[in-house]
Design goal:
heterodimer, A: about 425 residues, 4-stranded parallel sheet, 17 helices, B: about 450 residues, alpha/beta, Nucleotidyltransferase, domain 5, about 55% helix
Chain lengths: ~425, ~450
């Protein structure tokens, strides 16, 4: 591996995030209104068209996890009576709030003017905002997104969402912001979204090459950062993805492997598909367990929880509300088990993966339920063996490095043994 | 002779297996793991080399038609002679360390009396040693620490005086002295001991062998002259990262247990290993290649260590738990296998008036239930099943497993080798042997 590298895109993302948290910290003084909302099914373009600033509690929680703050926040929430088994994103957020609501960059977060709950797949989201409503006593707008139980979007699902947008969500946004709904502004924003989405998809699909120029999971979580959070539909977002794409194009042309915290990985040995979110509290350590063995993640489902762009979806400025509805319905978290299996199967084949692994999250029942079944079905469909590890999102107590390393090593050695036998 | 070594560094015991070029086992060694993994690995290896030398002697005797059948008497005799010598040597070192520990300023006023008691105990321990290694002796354990501790504590208890030199003082000295004795060993000293033991066994056999003594001596010398050339070695187990091997020579214990079990029982498709820190359910194909596995998560609940805690709580040896549990007549249901709560759970039930054997039977079943869940998640129990790891030596655990497999999967062939504890080390040695063959090809 070569020396540690910092790319322009990384620097830019850092600046964007830092500027956003700065803006949030002075939102009230600046007269800006704030909407709290979730990543899957977020309506960033719509929110921003009313000049609201978005706050994404899961992002704050994972950022707190990466900055080693989540353990204390979780203890704080447990002191409030939340049990050990409750979603650790929720507890991290509640704990952060109880300790003064200082955001991950060390600046205070503003209280919400609206809780916009567009919940997709995760039913804990509803309870989470119920808890936040008690704390803040602020208005709530709820966008109910039907679960894709049949594995496809039906017209009446879309109509149902559009109707809720028109009759409930938009009126509330108008009321609280004091501004009229401006469809032209929304369209302009959606156009920017689509541009950025094109570049993001190109970047993610670059992993089909050998060697892959990116790690589509550990690197991927950085690549999805802007588009999954506050920057979809912004000029900044478009710039970021253009720069990122140019960098990856260059890596590809030079046949370079992915960048890791210890430099470039130049000897790709295993190509893996990963299902499930990473562990955030020991993110670096977790990543290292893979790159030390020259294992590169070529595709992951976690990088699709905020939108499945690589399967063709783009925000469409010509159908502004319908496209937002389709976006919400299509997020990975809203897919049925067979649809998830189908997607992962396609990834194993299209990205020529040697294997796939599931990182099952202890405190997330809605995502982890059925994962072993998925594993068996995927093994059957692809003929490729699956690996299974368990950790958690942001509770450091659930990360046992020795145990996880043992499983990863065993799994990779198993792949090696199979490879040698065939 | 070209040999290949596999070392399995477990959290409770460390095992070594030596294979020859035809993948035949020529020696095995085992020792209790310590905080110092490197020493544990070294001692297990040395023991495997000693055993290898014994086995070579066995083969050399067996190869001489004049000596037909002699090997079956000579080998146990040789092993006893060696073990006794080794034990006595360790006792000498233990004596030195005990007296050194007694030099503590805190014990100044008791010094003379203490030295005398220690000498008495040590003299008695030497006498007992001769009994431990008699022809018909049954030993509770093969580890010096266990044997010495049992003898020492028994005599310390008899000699302790609550007002003067208390049992606590004496047992404290032992705890201090045993560590340096356990944590050092030298290959040269062992080689010399083997030589002495061979000579002693030859002398002892001379009277019964009469005219065949020369043949026997020749066979023994032939075995003694063989050099064991270690071609390569592979390490595995919980502490494998700390073994002094390069990365390429380290294999996951999951792969090693899979391959080891396959070698012992070639039709095996499902393997369960319950070790000290983790439980693994493994599926293998017809070549012993792992196809899927599940292991316990970060918590060691329901693993071997749990039984260790229970044994401590009950003031029993781990090996005594299974037989006691088998005396159970009443079904006690226990759900928690949490190691942290083991003591509390146990005391609670004892206070309710439940019998020790019934509680123990319930605990064994709880452990196996946890393993059953891992087995189910890994793909179930196939036609032929092999149980490995230290817990496979526990009869109550085995009985519970057999019952639950039958209940859940129907009739299955269940293999448990008497050498099951060496399964991981055997797999590692096979990887060493295969690796070297591939390099040659």
């Amino acid at each position: 591996m070569s020396t540690v590298q910092k790319e322009r895109s990384m620097e830019l993302q850092k600046e964007m995030i830092s500027d956003h948290f700065d803006a949030l910290s002075t939102a009230k003084e600046d007269g800006r209104k704030v909407v709290y909302t979730f990543v899957p099914g977020n309506l960033t373009e719509l929110i921003r068209s009313f000049d609201f600033l978005p706050v994404l509690p899961e992002i704050n929680a994972l950022q707190s996890g990466m900055r080693k703050l989540s353990g204390n926040y979780i203890s704080e929430a447990e002191k409030q009576g939340h049990s050990e088994d409750v979603c650790t994103y929720v507890k991290c957020d509640i704990g952060m709030l109880k300790r003064g609501n200082v955001g991950p960059t060390g600046k205070p977060l503003p209280e919400p003017d609206l809780l916009l709950l567009s919940y997709t797949g995760c039913f804990t989201f509803m309870k989470w905002f119920e808890l936040l409503r008690q704390e803040y006593d602020c208005p709530v707008a709820m966008l109910h997104v039907p679960y894709q139980a049949e594995g496809k979007i039906r017209d009446h699902y879309r109509d149902y969402i559009v109707e809720q947008l028109e009759t409930d969500v938009i009126p509330k946004l108008e009321e609280i912001s004091g501004k009229r709904y401006d469809e032209e502004r929304l369209r302009a924003s959606l156009e920017l979204s689509a541009k950025a989405e094109d570049d993001l998809v190109w970047v993610l699909e670059s992993a089909k090459n050998r060697p892959s120029p990116i790690d589509a999971y550990f690197g991927g979580v950085y690549y999805i950062g802007p588009i999954f959070s506050a920057f979809r539909g912004t000029e900044n977002g478009v710039d970021y993805y253009q720069i990122l794409r140019t960098e990856i194009e260059e890596r590809l042309a030079n046949r370079q492997g992915p960048i890791t915290p210890d430099g470039e990985l130049d000897d790709e040995r295993y190509r893996l598909v990963i299902e499930g979110p990473p562990n955030w509290t020991s993110f670096r350590e977790f990543w290292k367990m893979f790159y030390e063995e020259a294992a590169v993640v070529v595709a992951s489902s976690y990088t699709k929880v905020g939108g499945l762009y690589d399967r063709g979806f783009r925000h469409d400025p010509d159908r502004p509300l319908e496209t937002l509805a389709d976006y919400c319905l299509g997020c990975y978290t809203n897919l049925s088990l067979p649809a998830r299996v189908e997607l992962l199967e396609a990834y194993v084949n299209e990205y020529q993966a040697d294997g796939f692994m599931i990182n099952s999250v202890k405190s997330c029942n809605s995502f982890s339920a059925g994962q072993l079944l998925m594993l068996r079905q995927l093994e059957e469909k692809t003929g490729v063996p699956g690996g299974f590890i368990e950790s958690d999102l942001v509770d450091p107590r659930y990360f046992s490095a020795a145990n996880i390393k043992n499983r990863i090593e065993s799994y990779l050695q198993m792949l090696e043994q199979k490879r040698m036998a065939s | 002779m070209r040999i290949f070594v596999g070392v399995d560094l477990g959290s409770t015991t460390t095992k070594a297996v030596i294979l020859d070029e035809n993948a035949r086992v020529v020696g095995r060694g085992i020792t209790n793991s310590r905080s110092n993994y490197e020493v544990a690995s070294q001692i297990a290896r040395q023991e495997a080399f000693v055993r290898a030398r014994f086995n070579l002697t066995h083969d050399a005797i067996a190869a001489d038609p004049e000596l037909a059948g002699v090997e079956e008497q000579f080998l146990p005799l040789l092993a006893r002679k060696f073990r006794l010598r080794h034990h006595l040597e360790e006792l000498t070192r233990l004596g030195e360390e005990l007296h050194r520990a007694a030099e503590s300023p805190r014990l100044e006023s008791l010094r003379a009396e203490l030295d005398q008691i220690l000498d008495e105990i040590l003299t008695a321990m030497v006498e007992l040693a001769n009994k431990h290694f008699g022809a018909l002796a049954v030993r509770q354990s093969e580890f010096f620490r266990d044997l010495a501790a049992a003898d020492y504590m028994q005599m310390a208890e008899a000699r302790a005086d609550p007002k003067g030199i208390s049992f606590e003082i004496l047992s404290g000295l032992f705890d201090q002295a045993i560590l340096p004795v356990e944590n050092s060993s030298s290959a040269e000293a062992l080689a010399a001991l083997i030589g002495d033991a061979l000579d002693a066994a030859l002398t002892a056999s001379a009277t019964t062998m009469a005219e065949r003594t020369d043949n026997l001596r020749q066979a023994v010398e032939k075995a003694r002259a063989i050099t064991l050339e270690e071609v390569s070695s592979v390490g595995t187990g919980y502490g494998r990262q700390r073994l002094p091997f390069p990365k390429e020579q380290v294999r996951s214990e999951i792969l090693c247990h899979g391959l080891g079990a396959h070698t012992m029982f070639p039709s095996t498709r499902t393997v369960l290993d319950i070790g000290g820190q983790d439980t693994k359910a493994i599926q293998v194909d017809d070549n012993g290649i792992v196809t899927s596995f599940q292991m316990n998560d970060r918590c060691a609940a329901g693993c071997g260590r749990y039984l260790g805690y229970i044994a401590d709580e009950m003031n029993l040896g781990v090996h005594e738990l299974g037989p006691l549990a088998q005396q159970s007549t009443c079904h006690v249901k226990i759900n928690s296998t949490c190691t942290v709560f083991a003591g509390a759970e146990l005391r609670e039930r004892l206070s309710l008036g439940q019998k020790r054997e019934d509680i123990l039977a319930g605990l064994h079943r709880a452990i196996i239930l946890r393993a059953m869940s891992l087995l189910a998640r890994s793909g179930g129990v196939d036609e032929e099943f092999t149980f490995t790891g230290g817990v496979a030596r526990n009869p109550a655990a085995v009985a519970a497993l057999e019952g639950l497999i039958d209940e859940n999967y129907g009739t299955r062939t269940i293999n448990i080798s008497s050498d099951s504890i060496y399964t991981g080390a055997l797999g590692a040695a096979l990887f060493a042997q295969r690796g070297s063959r591939q390099e040659a090809a």
